[in-house]
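Subject: design request, 873 residues
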């Protein structure tokens, strides 16, 4: 047998494999032989080796085909990206911004400025998640059972694991399993179309890993537990040695606890293969195949996080992230960006129309940009859209940092709902961009807050894909740190923001904005490109939608709800062939010309025989069927992306550009990463406001001078809403409103609207938008708390201890008690008394200090309610 294997190795080498590749094949066959030898059946050994060799040959052929497919995809993507970069650079004159526009979107004007990898990822992920949620909502009781019934979830797992064979007898569980399986298959097939190689796995169930629980048990215990529950023949098809299995599981363990499994996983695996070729790596993943459903459930009970729904949600999210990268940048995004950068540098050097000064200026814009090493803004942007900034380097440090920031959020953001009043301004501005006046925008926003939508309206929202209940809420992301929370911390944060009212406010405002945008474009669908308003054309142009694309989109049938029509993304999938053929006319002509000619001695000669013409016609029709489906899917993704992104302008949320500014490409669980996340906590809103509203010059009419009227509306509204916000904060704290006759009050009011972000906190107030000091604002609330503690300790050393200050420091860092509708009542009922008991006279000193330093008084001075030393007067 040894001689046979050596002959096999020599034959493989002659066939074109390297000695290393041939050796690996032979080693694998030897492992199969050894495993089969345990049966003692010589014929069984031969059959097993033959079958393994055949499987190996098929995989090698598939890999060769995949390489050819990747080469073809890269050529197509490269041509498209070259054209896009050239167009954007012509619009803006900024090559660096052109690359950032592709990755994360750009605030600068230019065709396709918002048509980014990040926007596509959001469109795909939220599209899948909302569509899945809509289907689940149509299954009676499914949503409630998924949230609270443990045995029901276990039945769903059993149905998925055993491919819907109905063994549980639970019809609802089988329906839910069918929905999950359908969306997992949709993500798999679309990834494969983009260049991945992910086989269909029978009995697949999404798996989540709790890195903290795995780390706590240790490598050996985790390997022992996992190995005893795996189907080893499926997990290690070419390995018979248990020692080798344990070695591989050791690598899986390291990859899970380092967080790297999140970066490239499409099918819940453990082996990380790197992003060098993202598509190929996804086909080589080491998947943990469990022995049966109960083994999977035992693993999840011990080392999983969340539940089956959240695991499915995260699987779709990760798949969408990789899909967006591959659909825009090809199977190897990193290599593609590096190549494009080098080409751009060469074009600048060789451009004879540029002066030496201009060349130097443009070259400096690209200096230090290295996607492969994640250097520079472009490298950091790639890290962000690939999800690498969510992968912890050291799990324990990342967990500590994220929990610390979660506590700060739940302690300090009890009044964030009041700050969110500024959403009315950005909502009205978005309405003005759609062609309506700002007064209408305010009325529409307030109406949406009071509107309870029926079944039709909720279905429209699912199709628009702006709200997903299954994920850590958008309300958290708007104001908090950029942490990837899960489990207990995520549940507590969601509960806190629901109790504060911010979740309700955010969801209502986003729903209203998305439906308004969809409705306005449905109303404009009867008009051609030249007939719609300039501002509408500007919005469409930012998202890469030109006249040809608009004509296809507006041909879709609108959905109706609440007496209004809506242009929704799902309708793009129903566009008829006539519309698609008009949309693809140029491509069809080119493909027909290619197929109806043949190459003869380097020249194109028309195909003339009837048999050849019929064969080429069949090929054209097959290609056209596939191309129509791809184009419909592209239009759906593009339209949803536009609605989601424009909704973010109405209700400000951080995007990839904001996150890059906040974490600078750093990973959690590193000293640098944790420092960035801690310092930048609570700053996502002002940064996003600056980038999305102020830097975009949203109140400018495209191609014309400044929209003076709109700017006037903006500043007046900003001051009015800022004063309302400021006054509301004072009232819930029990203070009298600030004097409206003082000029500084109106400066502070304008800044409170969000326009100047944290700078207004330094210039005009001791307490910022969230209730913290300037130190909190500059260094983040966690470092601010440390500073306050140090100040109290310093006072204690000097013999100036104020126990009341120490008490309030603790209270201001305690989750839940600082909700805007409870804190004032709690102060007067309990806390002022306790503070006065600890430090008699502290309330009078506090009142004098507030009047002296901030010019404010309490509506009901605490010292008039609480007597010296504590107790009611």
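Subject: RE: design request

Done. Sequence follows.
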């Amino acid at each position: 047998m040894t001689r046979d294997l050596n002959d096999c190795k020599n034959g493989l080498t002659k066939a074109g494999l390297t000695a290393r590749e041939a050796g690996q094949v032979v080693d694998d066959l030897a492992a199969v032989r050894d495993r089969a030898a345990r049966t003692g059946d010589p014929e069984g050994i031969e059959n097993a080796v033959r079958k393994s060799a055949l499987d190996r040959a098929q995989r090698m052929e598939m890999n060769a085909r995949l390489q050819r497919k990747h080469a073809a995809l890269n050529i197509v993507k490269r041509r498209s990206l070259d054209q896009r970069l050239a167009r954007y650079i012509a619009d803006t004159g900024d090559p660096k911004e052109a690359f950032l526009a592709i990755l994360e979107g750009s605030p600068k004007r230019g065709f396709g400025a918002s048509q980014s990898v990040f926007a596509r990822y959001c469109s795909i992920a939220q599209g899948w998640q909302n569509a899945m949620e809509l289907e689940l909502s149509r299954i009676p009781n499914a949503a409630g059972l998924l949230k609270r019934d443990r045995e029901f979830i276990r039945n769903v797992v059993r149905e998925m694991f055993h491919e819907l064979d109905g063994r549980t007898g639970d019809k609802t569980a089988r329906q839910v399993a069918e929905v999950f399986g359908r969306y997992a298959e949709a993500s798999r097939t679309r990834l494969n179309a983009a260049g991945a190689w992910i086989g269909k796995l029978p009995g697949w169930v999404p798996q989540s890993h709790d890195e903290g629980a795995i780390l706590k048990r240790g490598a050996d215990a985790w390997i022992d537990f996992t190995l005893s529950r795996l189907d080893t023949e499926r997990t290690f098809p070419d390995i018979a040695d248990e020692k080798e299995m344990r070695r591989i599981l050791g690598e899986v363990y390291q990859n899970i606890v380092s967080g790297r499994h999140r970066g490239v996983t499409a099918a819940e695996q453990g082996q990380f293969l790197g992003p060098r070729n993202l598509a190929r790596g996804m086909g080589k993943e080491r998947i943990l195949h469990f022995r049966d459903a109960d083994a999977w459930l035992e693993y999840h009970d011990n080392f999983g996080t969340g539940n089956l729904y959240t695991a499915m949600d995260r699987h779709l999210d990760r798949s969408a992230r990789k899909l967006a990268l591959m659909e825009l940048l090809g199977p190897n995004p990193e290599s593609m960006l590096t190549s494009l950068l080098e080409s751009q540098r060469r074009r600048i050097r060789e451009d004879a129309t540029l002066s030496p000064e201009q060349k130097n200026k443009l070259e400096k814009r690209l200096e230090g940009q290295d996607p492969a090493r994640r250097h520079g803004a472009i490298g950091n942007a790639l890290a962000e859209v690939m999800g690498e900034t969510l992968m912890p380097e050291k799990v324990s440090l990342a967990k500590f940092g994220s929990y610390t920031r979660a506590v700060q959020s739940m302690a300090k953001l009890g009044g964030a709902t009041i700050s969110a009043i500024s959403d009315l301004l950005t909502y009205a501005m978005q309405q003005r961009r759609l062609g309506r006046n700002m007064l209408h925008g305010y009325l529409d926003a307030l109406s949406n807050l009071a509107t309870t939508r029926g079944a039709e309206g909720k279905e429209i929202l699912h199709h628009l894909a702006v709200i997903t209940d299954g994920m850590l809420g958008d309300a958290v992301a708007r104001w908090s740190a950029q942490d990837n929370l899960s489990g207990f911390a995520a549940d507590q944060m969601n509960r806190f923001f629901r109790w504060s009212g911010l979740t309700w406010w955010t969801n209502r405002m986003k729903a209203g904005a998305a439906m308004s945008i969809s409705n306005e474009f449905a109303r404009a669908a009867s008009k051609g490109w030249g007939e719609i308003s300039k501002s509408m054309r500007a919005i469409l142009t930012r998202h890469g939608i030109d006249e040809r694309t608009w004509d296809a989109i507006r041909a879709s049938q609108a959905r109706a709800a609440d007496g209004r029509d809506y242009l929704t993304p799902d309708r793009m999938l129903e566009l008829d062939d006539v519309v698609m053929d008009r949309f693809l006319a140029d491509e069809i002509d080119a493909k027909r010309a290619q197929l109806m000619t043949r190459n003869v001695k380097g020249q194109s000669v028309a195909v003339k025989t009837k048999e050849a013409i019929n064969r080429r016609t069949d090929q054209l029709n097959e290609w056209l069927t596939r191309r129509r489906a791809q184009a419909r899917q592209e239009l759906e993704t593009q339209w949803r992306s536009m609605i989601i992104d424009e909704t973010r302008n109405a209700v400000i949320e951080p995007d990839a550009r904001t996150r890059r500014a906040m974490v600078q490409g750093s990973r959690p669980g590193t000293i640098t990463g944790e420092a960035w996340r801690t310092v930048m906590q609570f700053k996502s809103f002002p940064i996003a406001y600056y980038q999305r509203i102020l830097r975009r010059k949203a109140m400018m009419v495209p191609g014309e001078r400044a929209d003076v009227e709109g700017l006037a509306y903006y500043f007046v509204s900003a001051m009015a809403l800022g004063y309302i916000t400021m006054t509301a904060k004072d009232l819930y704290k029990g203070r009298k409103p600030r004097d409206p006759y003082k000029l500084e009050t109106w400066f502070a009011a304008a800044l409170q609207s969000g326009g100047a972000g944290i700078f207004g906190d330094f210039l005009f107030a001791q307490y910022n938008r969230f209730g913290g000091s300037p130190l909190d604002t500059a260094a983040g609330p966690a470092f601010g708390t440390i500073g306050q503690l140090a100040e109290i300790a310093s006072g204690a050393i000097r013999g100036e201890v104020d126990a009341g200050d120490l008490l309030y420091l603790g209270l201001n860092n305690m989750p839940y008690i600082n909700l805007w509708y409870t804190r004032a009542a709690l102060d007067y009922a309990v806390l002022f008394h306790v503070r006065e008991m600890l430090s008699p006279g502290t309330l009078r000193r506090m009142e004098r200090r507030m009047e002296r330093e901030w010019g404010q008084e309490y509506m009901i001075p605490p010292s008039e309610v609480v007597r010296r030393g504590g107790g009611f007067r």
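The first helix runs from residue 2 to 14.
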